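Collaboration report, partner site 2.

Our partner group contributed sequences for two proteins of shared interest, and the home lab folded both. The records are reproduced in the order in which they were received, starting with the first partner submission.
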Amino acid sequence: MANLFSEVQGTTIEQFIIGHKIERIKELIIYGELNMTEIAWKMNYSSVAHLSNQFKKVTGLTPSHFKQMKDKRRSPIEEI
């Protein structure tokens, strides 16, 4: 089954799941309602360090750098 999945999706099941988890983590960071400890717990990571390492491996960015990029793109309401 894993071989069939890899053939169809072009990636392993593990990498597919990790990719989806990282996309969800991006959403949670953007929403800004949870801190990194809460996100790590919610997404079943053993620690914030583990989440951060996997996030950087997949995206090339640390979660904090990703959050800073998001914050820079937001325009204050006075500027709209």
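Second partner submission, folded after the first:
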Amino acid sequence: MDPEDLSTPELSGLSTMLGITITAFGDGECTVEATVTDSHLNKGGVAHGGLHATMLDTALGGALVSALRKEEWCATAQLDLSYLDPAYSGSHLYAHGRVIRKGRNIAHLEGEIVNQDGKTIATGKGTWAIWVNRPKSLGGSE
């Protein structure tokens, strides 16, 4: 990929609403961060698993996007998470994703979320579909 074509992608509205930001992007890797607020908590008083899922989906997807050609398109086909430890209000979370293997039409990725103390909160792995061009269903020409 031409480094001049590599720009940090715009996050989805959901990621933005959750306070997720991209802090590293390129060479098949991506890191996103968020600080857990009271609005992220479930009824048990810990960060809702949906926050972790969105952070890992964003980090893994971002890792793949950083390895695609400008005209290529991708989408999550499968995402598996393991929740290892809780995150509490005030915790700062870092989700890091990386491409493990990328083929022509499919890619495998993995990553983890750690807190500000380096404690692993969750891990994830996923499979992404890759298209040569943006699919017609998304307004593309393919």
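Feedback sent to the partner group on the second submission included the following. The chain has one domain: 12-138. The chain has a mean pLDDT of 92.
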